[in-house]
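Any chance you'd type out a single protein's sequence alongside its tokenized fold?
>
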Amino acid sequence: MSCYKVSLNGKIVSANQAQIPLYSPAVLQGLGVYDTIEVIDGIPFYLNEHLKRLFESADMIDLNLPWALGEVTKWAGELLEHLSGDCLLRVIALDLSEGEEDKLMAMMPQLLPRYPAQYYQDGVRLVTYEGCRHMPTCKSLNTLVNLLARRHAARFGAHEAILCSNGRLTEGSRSNIFAVCKGEVLTPPSNWVLPGITRDIVMRLASEAGYTVRERNLWLAEVDRYEEFFITSTSMHIIPVVEIDGMRVGNGQVGHVTSDLMQRFEAYHHNYIETLRRRTTPTIAVASQST
């Protein structure tokens, strides 16, 4: 990764030059926020929406960022000019000393995960992990419970872990969750979870397709009553779930509602990327989203 280019407050440098003080609040107290954008062939998916969420998360922890959204969007476009192919663009805003002048906006490329086609065709297994994120609507650097949940899932050979608090299913360690029950598309209330960008798109597409979409609590005790279940995220898009904690979901196969929404999302995603691709360059495409 040392040969990669990264952006530090708009300045493009080599990744091995990206360093922060060991005693900064960002390290000792996790005083920072982050977001992750999918980039396809140099074109970011929903860049402006991700950056807006980053600024909103910063406000939640009183991290006063001295830059305008448009300026940060421009930095992202400039960094993308140095990148090629597909990646995840990780954007992190840090407080280095709790001083007005010591804020850092870092942007760095990461490998874009590629999941086996079998996950999408046959569904995946999930496990639950007892815990919840503090300030769940904020995408802060306080992600210890997420890490522990992912380790728990790996120990049981599961694709993902769902955070569970007193029997209530809230969100995955790196995803949002949906259930289909009596034909309705259900997802936990937005005040209990990180409102994912992919989650929002899926809810809108489902509603436009004529499905009843509702936010309500999902419970571990009612898993056997769910007809379908799926998870969403920036890199996974929509992955169907056929088993939770050893309990089969529905008939143990990918349901027709999930399959329909997967097709609708992939079509929407493809059209979005192709529309921006026709606008001459990724940099122009990035700039157009901030207007």
About this structure: Confidence is low (pLDDT under 50) at residues 287-291.
